[in-house]
Each structure stands twice: as structure tokens, then as C-alpha cells.
Amino acid sequence: DSGVDEWFSFIEDINENILAEFRRQNGRRVRVAVLDTGVDMRNAVFSDREVRRRIKARVDFLDPEGFGLDTCGHGTHCVSLVNRVAPAADIYVGRVACDFDSGVDEEVVAKASPHSDPSPLLLTSACLMHQAIRKALGPKDVDGNWDVDVLSLSFGFPRLSEAIKAALDETHRPDKLILAAASNHGTRRGVAYPASRTGIITIHAADADGRPCNFNPSADPGNSLSILGKNVEAAWTCHGDPTNPASVRRMTGTSVATPIAAGVVSLLLEMTMLDVPGDPATEATLRQMHPMLKTYDGMMAVLTDMTARTQGYHNIVPWNVLDSTKTVANIAKYLREWVLNRRFGM
Predict the structure, then answer these.
(1) What whole-number distance in Å separates Cα of residue 143 and Cα of residue 153?
(2) Environment class of residue 344 by beta-carbon count within 10 Å: exposed (0-12), middle (13-18) or buried (19+)?
(3) What is the pLDDT of residues 82-109, one digit of tens each?
(4) Active-site position among 113, 255, 314, 323
(5) Is the pLDDT of residue 114 over 90?
(6) Does residue 295 sit within a domain?
(7) In the UniProt entry, which residues are flagged as the active site (predicted)?
């Protein structure tokens, strides 16, 4: 798909022409957690030493003795998309679901499908999700928690889950950004939980030209962000054929759009963490914006500003703000004066 390829080429321009020169070599990076079907590290996309170093943790919430190996493919797809969009982020992987055909528990609920009529991710019990969310968002000095900045959830329940609600009530602090897939059932079911929860960044799917996918729930004011999620090729599990480390699959769904959006959010956070030694004023501006962009309101202000309105949805176009033809100083000034100043009086 040439449109999808071009979309990712613009993301590469952002990384190479805006961020690469000023990326911090040491110290804390943006932390992203992906709770899904795990990851297959045998795939060639993870063969680079630096990439493997940035996969900071793999926890198997289905099997305490396991290593989070993805036997389905969906999780590997999601993790590789986060890595492709945000190649400097530290990634934490939680295996909370497995393939529907693998003899899973009755409580396992919906896996994203690569077929033309995508369905949501089949999840394990909400109790396991409670553990995983606490692990991802909990303070780092407690029980080995990850304390991530960004949490990507490519799943949803048709109704409110008390266990997941309890986990989010307990751990969702104002400086934690959570993105969740809206659902792939159109108006039949509406927005899934936890994407329907206040304070969650709800993600719908679009094609490479920004046109919304027909399986999205209806767009609501203030809850209508979309991003590329159609016909996206990314890494797939090598399970069953370890001699094929370059395994890939094209996928469609809001569960595909969500890790891409999580990657964009990570880039925006990374922007505020850049080291700009030759321009202390710009670096100070970026640091000043950092805590604001870590909040739901601040990040939504920036994401909304970079959107194009398409058929009732706000399609995220990252290069509308992260313009690779502009300097870091110009982008920082724009974000401060035209986006955050309007929202926070900065």
C-alpha cells in the first residue's frame, strides 16, 4: 500500500530531521507499555541490539513461568508499530491475551482479526488486566512496577469492567497518558470500555488519506480522534515457523491505530525532553511544556491541533505540527504560543 508507506516515510522524516540530532543519549527516555498478546522477539525487526535493549520488560500475566512469547501475532504487530513510530522509546510488554484457538479460558474476550471485518482483541479475564494495569502504571519503586508515561490498550469490553475500573481508579494519575481502541463494531456496540472512560484518549481508525474506517463507532464531540489503522504492515509472530524471522502481516482495526497513536504521543513527549545545548532558551521552553503534555488536557490540545477534520472525525496528521522542514526552536515556539497558551495561559 503506497499510501501507508508514504505515511510512515513522513514519520521517518520527523525522527531523522527533527529529533535525531537532539535525542538524549543518557538518562530517562519516554516509557511506553503495550498490553496485548506479548511479543515474538525472534522476528527480525527486533534483531538490532539497540532495539532489543529498549524492550525493557516482558511479563506474562497468563503464565507466571512464561516469557511473554506471542503465539498469536497481534502483540508483536503492536509492539513493532510503537517501535517504528517512536524508535527511541523504552517499551514494556505485558502478555494479557492469547490466540482464541489456543484453548483459552471462557473469559477470554476478542482478538483483532486480519480479515476484512475486524473484531476487537480477545482478552483474558478482567482480573488479569487489573494486575497488568497496576504493573504498567504503578510507581517504579514498588513491586518492580514500570511507571510508564504512555499505556497502549488495543482491546475493549462491551460494557464497563469493574476490575479494570478499579485498576484505573487506583493507578491512573494525571501524568499518565492512556490510549485505548474505540472498537470495530460501528454503531452496533458503540465505544468499548475503557476507551469510553473519561480521561482516556480514544482512538479510531482511518486509511492513509485520513478517511475514517466504516467499522468505527460514531464520532462524538471531544471523542473523535483517528489515525492510520487500515492495511498496516508490521511484524508478526514466527511461532510455528522460526525459520521465517521476517514474518509480517497487514492488519486493519482500531487496535492497529492505537499503538501508532501511542507512538505519536511518545514523539511529542520526547520532543519536550530533547537536549538542545546550543539554544538554552528553546530547551527551557521544551522543559516547561513537558509536564503539560503529560496530562490528558495538554496532550489532547496538541493532538487536536495537528488534526484534519474528515467526516466528523479529527484525523491525526503528525507532520502538521512536527514539520520536518522547521527547526526545533520554531516548533517549540508554535506549541507554546499557539497551542498550550490557549489551553493553559502559558
Answers:
(1) 22
(2) middle
(3) 999 999 999 999 998 876 334 223 232 2
(4) 255
(5) no
(6) no
(7) 36 (charge relay system), 74 (charge relay system), 255 (charge relay system)
pLDDT at 318 over 80: yes
Sorting pLDDT into bands at 50, 70 and 90, what band is 37? very high
Over residues 250-281, the pLDDT tens digits come to 999 999 999 999 999 999 999 999 999 999 99
Rounded to whole angstroms, how far apart are CA atoms 296 and 284?
22
| R_g of the chain, CA atoms, integer Å | 19
Active site annotation includes 48: no
Tell me the residue length of the chain: 346
Q: What phi and psi, each to the nearest 5 degrees, are found at residue 336?
A: -70, -50
pLDDT tens digits along 208-218:
999 999 999 99
Cell 479494570: give the residue.
Answer: 164
Four-residue CA torsion sign, 215, 219, 220, 223: positive
Written as one letter, the residue type at 214 is N
Q: Domain of 198?
A: 2-275
Q: Is 36 a catalytic residue?
A: yes
Find out whether 236 and 250 touch, Cβ atoms under 8 Å: no
Number of domains making up the chain: 1
Annotated catalytic residue 255: yes
Residue tagged active-site, from 40, 70, 74, 99: 74
Q: Give me the chain's average pLDDT, please.
A: 88
| 295 close to 175: Cβ distance less than 8 angstroms | yes
DSSP output for 60-114: ESS-TT---B-SSSHHHHHHHHHHHH-TTSEEEEEE----TTS---TT-EE---S
CA separation for the pair 268, 302 (Å, rounded): 9
Retrieve residue 144's grid coordinates.
518492580
Type of residue numbered 226: S
Enumerate the β-bridge partners of residue 95: 36, 60
DSSP characters over 294-314: TSHHHHHHHHHHTEEEETTEE
Instruction: Spell out where 196-334 has E strands.
Output: 201-206, 225-228, 232-235, 248-251, 307-310, 313-316
Residue 232 within any structural domain of the chain:
yes
Position 329 scores a pLDDT of 96
Q: What's the CATH code of the domain at 183?
A: 3.40.50.200
Within a domain: residue 99? Answer: yes
